[in-house]
Amino acid sequence: MRKALLLLLLVSLLGVAAACGGDDEAEPEAAPTGAAETGAAEEPDPCSPDELTLVEQGMLTIGTDSPAFPPWFQDAEGAPWDPTTEPTQQGYEAAVAYAVAEELGFSDDQVQWVVVPFDAVFRPGPKDFDFDINQVSYTEERDQAVDFSDSYYDVQQAVVTLKNSGYANATSLADLEGAKLGAPVGTTSFDVIESTIATGEEPAVFNTLNDAVNALKNRQVDGIVVDLPTAFFITAVQVPNGKIVGQVAAETQEYFGLVFEEGNPLRDCVNEALASLREDGTLDQIEQEWIADRANAPVLE
Fold it and tell me: To the nearest whole percent, how much of the chain has pLDDT over 70?
């Protein structure tokens, strides 16, 4: 009997030892690979209105000059627009501005306009606008003081004179030799007179486009140089006896960009918006509505 009890005890002890040994060797179960962590926060979109650093939080402040001329801006009657009055969506640049705003997540009511004279847009220093849209052509020199978006419109410069001018029938840049030409201060139009047309006469410089147009009307200059769509408006409305002599050759082609304070991260968000508007055809639709019929003129070479 004692031997049987001892044998039974020995068997029981061996069973316990075996069970303990199995527990020591067991590996814990690993969590499934790629399992989602519950409660993980998503990264905020840096281009959402709530994340952008703006002149006035919750509003998109856009600058342009006053008056702003067709086909870029116009009021309901088709006249030049004053940004200090009611907002407008009429005109190519107005439509582009509101399309960019919508792409960024701003409603029309969240867009406000401020007046910024053209030659003040690309001066260094703080800006009272989030971006400016005012036919500002990109140049390397301007880009040292401000940031430019990608192109929202590729443009050529054009020469406008009076129909009875001795230069009205010019067919080449050489035919403009001796002409007194003018353009607003700080514009690439003025640069083109000096660097490309080179008539041999000192160019006339004006404070505003209005001043240049009045000088042409009063025959103080033989002609003025402006971007091509503006030339069509001038000859159709402001100077009915005016004539587009021609556009300056393609090697001088430039592009208009939205202007930002140097280092403003909004620029990258706007470039994304412009790329989307170009891809889905919105920019082309706006151009067809406001500019397409004003884009043809002989080329002066």
Answer: 84
> Residue 234 gets which letter from DSSP?
I
**Average pLDDT over the chain, rounded to whole?**
87
From CA 57, how far away is CA 90, in angstroms rounded? Answer: 26
Distance of alpha carbon 213 from the chain centroid: 27
Q: What tokens does 283 get?
A: 């920019």
Three-state DSSP string of 235-265 = HHHHCCCEEEEEEECHHHCEEEEEEEECCCC
Burial (CB count <10 Å: 0-12, 13-18, 19+), residue 140: exposed
Cβ–Cβ under 8 Å, residues 277 and 103: yes
Q: At 50, list the tokens.
A: 């709530």
Provide the b/e sequence for 13-43 (b: ≥16 CB within 10 Å): eeeeeeeeeeeeeeeeeeeeeeeeeeeeeee
Type and span of the H or E element at 132: strand 131-132
For residue 25, pLDDT over 70 is answered with: no
Domains and CATH numbers, the chain: 60-154+255-300 (3.40.190.10), 157-252 (3.40.190.10)
The span from the CA of 146 to the CA of 137, in Å, is 12
CA distances from 82 to 44, 135, 248, 280 (A): 37, 16, 30, 31
> 106 and 62 in contact (C-beta within 8 Å)?
no
